[in-house]
Amino acid sequence: MFFVRSASSRDNAAIREVLAETWRATYAQFYGADKVEQIIADWHSEAAVTAALSRPDGEYLVADDGKMIGGVAFASKSADGKMITLHQLYVRPECQGLGIGRDLFAEIESCFPDAQKLTLEVDPGNEPAIGFYQAHGMAEAGRTENCGKGQSGIPALILEKMITG
Protein backbone atom coordinates (compact mmCIF):
# COMPACT_ATOMS: atom_id res chain seq x y z
CA MET A 1 0.00 0.00 0.00
CA PHE A 2 1.46 3.31 -1.08
CA PHE A 3 0.92 6.54 0.80
CA VAL A 4 1.57 10.02 -0.53
CA ARG A 5 3.90 12.29 1.40
CA SER A 6 6.04 15.34 0.84
CA ALA A 7 9.43 14.50 -0.58
CA SER A 8 12.66 15.50 1.11
CA SER A 9 16.29 15.67 0.09
CA ARG A 10 16.81 12.10 1.32
CA ASP A 11 14.45 10.98 -1.49
CA ASN A 12 16.61 12.52 -4.25
CA ALA A 13 18.16 9.26 -5.51
CA ALA A 14 14.84 7.38 -5.39
CA ILE A 15 13.05 10.21 -7.22
CA ARG A 16 15.70 10.21 -9.95
CA GLU A 17 15.37 6.42 -10.25
CA VAL A 18 11.58 6.69 -10.79
CA LEU A 19 12.05 9.49 -13.33
CA ALA A 20 14.76 7.63 -15.28
CA GLU A 21 12.94 4.29 -15.26
CA THR A 22 9.66 5.86 -16.34
CA TRP A 23 11.24 8.02 -19.05
CA ARG A 24 13.09 5.04 -20.52
CA ALA A 25 9.93 2.91 -20.56
CA THR A 26 7.67 5.65 -21.92
CA TYR A 27 9.68 7.91 -24.18
CA ALA A 28 12.39 5.80 -25.84
CA GLN A 29 9.80 4.79 -28.45
CA PHE A 30 9.17 8.47 -29.30
CA TYR A 31 12.64 10.01 -29.10
CA GLY A 32 15.09 7.12 -29.15
CA ALA A 33 17.30 5.89 -26.32
CA ASP A 34 20.07 8.48 -26.83
CA LYS A 35 17.73 11.48 -26.62
CA VAL A 36 15.99 10.00 -23.56
CA GLU A 37 19.34 9.55 -21.80
CA GLN A 38 20.25 13.17 -22.62
CA ILE A 39 16.96 14.39 -21.17
CA ILE A 40 17.36 12.24 -18.05
CA ALA A 41 20.88 13.59 -17.53
CA ASP A 42 19.62 17.18 -17.83
CA TRP A 43 16.04 17.34 -16.58
CA HIS A 44 16.33 14.62 -13.92
CA SER A 45 19.86 15.17 -12.65
CA GLU A 46 20.67 15.35 -8.95
CA ALA A 47 20.99 19.13 -9.26
CA ALA A 48 17.63 19.47 -11.04
CA VAL A 49 15.80 17.38 -8.44
CA THR A 50 17.55 19.24 -5.60
CA ALA A 51 16.49 22.56 -7.11
CA ALA A 52 12.87 21.40 -7.47
CA LEU A 53 12.80 20.07 -3.90
CA SER A 54 13.95 23.44 -2.58
CA ARG A 55 11.54 25.67 -4.54
CA PRO A 56 9.48 27.73 -2.08
CA ASP A 57 6.63 27.97 -4.62
CA GLY A 58 6.54 24.23 -5.26
CA GLU A 59 5.43 20.93 -3.84
CA TYR A 60 7.25 17.66 -4.48
CA LEU A 61 5.38 14.50 -3.53
CA VAL A 62 6.27 10.83 -3.51
CA ALA A 63 4.16 7.69 -3.23
CA ASP A 64 5.97 5.49 -0.72
CA ASP A 65 5.20 1.96 0.50
CA GLY A 66 8.05 1.87 3.01
CA LYS A 67 10.24 -0.17 0.64
CA MET A 68 10.31 1.94 -2.51
CA ILE A 69 9.02 5.09 -4.13
CA GLY A 70 6.36 4.05 -6.63
CA GLY A 71 5.63 7.47 -8.08
CA VAL A 72 6.45 11.16 -7.92
CA ALA A 73 4.73 14.45 -8.61
CA PHE A 74 6.10 17.98 -8.69
CA ALA A 75 4.13 21.19 -9.20
CA SER A 76 4.65 24.87 -8.63
CA LYS A 77 2.33 27.84 -8.34
CA SER A 78 2.32 31.12 -10.20
CA ALA A 79 3.41 34.30 -8.40
CA ASP A 80 -0.20 35.18 -7.57
CA GLY A 81 -0.96 31.60 -6.49
CA LYS A 82 -3.87 31.26 -8.91
CA MET A 83 -2.31 28.76 -11.31
CA ILE A 84 -0.56 25.43 -10.69
CA THR A 85 1.87 24.02 -13.23
CA LEU A 86 2.28 20.25 -12.94
CA HIS A 87 5.86 19.63 -14.03
CA GLN A 88 6.08 15.93 -13.23
CA LEU A 89 3.72 13.06 -12.54
CA TYR A 90 5.44 9.74 -13.06
CA VAL A 91 4.65 6.27 -11.78
CA ARG A 92 7.06 3.35 -12.10
CA PRO A 93 5.91 1.08 -14.93
CA GLU A 94 5.41 -1.88 -12.57
CA CYS A 95 3.30 0.27 -10.23
CA GLN A 96 0.96 1.71 -12.86
CA GLY A 97 -2.70 0.83 -12.43
CA LEU A 98 -2.51 0.82 -8.60
CA GLY A 99 -4.04 4.27 -8.12
CA ILE A 100 -0.72 5.98 -7.40
CA GLY A 101 -1.11 8.53 -10.20
CA ARG A 102 -4.66 9.31 -9.08
CA ASP A 103 -3.55 9.82 -5.48
CA LEU A 104 -0.58 12.01 -6.44
CA PHE A 105 -2.74 14.10 -8.77
CA ALA A 106 -5.41 14.64 -6.11
CA GLU A 107 -2.84 15.60 -3.48
CA ILE A 108 -1.11 18.08 -5.81
CA GLU A 109 -4.44 19.84 -6.34
CA SER A 110 -4.98 20.11 -2.58
CA CYS A 111 -1.48 21.51 -1.92
CA PHE A 112 -2.36 24.87 -3.48
CA PRO A 113 -5.65 26.01 -1.87
CA ASP A 114 -5.79 29.39 -3.66
CA ALA A 115 -5.27 27.95 -7.15
CA GLN A 116 -8.00 28.31 -9.75
CA LYS A 117 -6.36 26.50 -12.67
CA LEU A 118 -3.99 23.58 -13.16
CA THR A 119 -1.93 23.27 -16.34
CA LEU A 120 0.57 20.74 -17.71
CA GLU A 121 2.35 19.61 -20.87
CA VAL A 122 2.14 16.08 -22.24
CA ASP A 123 3.59 14.40 -25.31
CA PRO A 124 0.88 14.15 -27.99
CA GLY A 125 1.84 10.50 -28.57
CA ASN A 126 1.53 9.51 -24.93
CA GLU A 127 -2.05 8.31 -25.20
CA PRO A 128 -2.18 6.60 -21.78
CA ALA A 129 -1.13 9.83 -20.04
CA ILE A 130 -3.55 11.92 -22.10
CA GLY A 131 -6.36 9.52 -21.22
CA PHE A 132 -5.41 9.67 -17.53
CA TYR A 133 -5.43 13.45 -17.49
CA GLN A 134 -8.70 13.69 -19.42
CA ALA A 135 -10.29 11.26 -16.95
CA HIS A 136 -9.22 13.70 -14.22
CA GLY A 137 -10.87 16.73 -15.81
CA MET A 138 -8.04 18.07 -17.96
CA ALA A 139 -8.75 19.36 -21.49
CA GLU A 140 -6.52 20.51 -24.34
CA ALA A 141 -5.83 24.25 -24.19
CA GLY A 142 -3.03 24.56 -26.74
CA ARG A 143 0.25 23.18 -28.03
CA THR A 144 3.93 23.99 -27.75
CA GLU A 145 6.96 22.95 -29.77
CA ASN A 146 9.26 23.20 -26.73
CA CYS A 147 8.04 21.03 -23.88
CA GLY A 148 9.81 21.39 -20.57
CA LYS A 149 12.98 23.42 -20.29
CA GLY A 150 14.19 25.94 -22.84
CA GLN A 151 14.24 25.10 -26.52
CA SER A 152 13.79 21.33 -26.20
CA GLY A 153 12.31 20.89 -29.68
CA ILE A 154 9.86 18.41 -28.12
CA PRO A 155 6.22 19.06 -29.04
CA ALA A 156 3.57 18.85 -26.35
CA LEU A 157 -0.10 19.31 -25.77
CA ILE A 158 -0.97 21.85 -23.12
CA LEU A 159 -3.79 20.59 -20.93
CA GLU A 160 -5.60 22.59 -18.28
CA LYS A 161 -8.35 22.28 -15.74
CA MET A 162 -10.26 24.82 -13.72
CA ILE A 163 -10.15 24.05 -10.00
CA THR A 164 -13.05 24.75 -7.73
CA GLY A 165 -12.39 25.24 -4.05
Task: Walk me through this protein's architecture.
- This protein is α+β, with helices and mostly antiparallel strands and 165 residues long.
- 36% of the residues lie in helices and 29% in strands.
- The protein is built from five helices and seven strands; from the N terminus they run βαααβββαβαββ.
- It has helices spanning 12-31, 33-43, 46-53, 100-110, 127-135; strands at 3-6, 58-64, 69-77, 83-91, 117-122, 139-144, 156-162.
- A seven-stranded mixed beta sheet has the order 1-2-3-4-5-7-6, with helices on both faces.
- α1 crosses α3.
- The longest helix has 20 residues, at 12-31.
Distance between the termini: 28 Å
- Give, in spatial order, the strands making up the sheet with the most strands: 1-2-3-4-5-7-6
* Residue-averaged pLDDT: 93
Q: What is the helical fraction, as a range of percent? A: 25-40%
As residue ranges, the low-confidence spans are none
- How many separate helices? 5
Structural class: alpha+beta
Strand count, sense and barrel status of the largest sheet are:
7 strands, mixed
**What Rg do the Cα atoms give?**
15 Å
| Beta-strand share of residues | 25-35%
| SSE succession | EHHHEEEHEHEE
Shape: globular
- Count of β-strands: 7
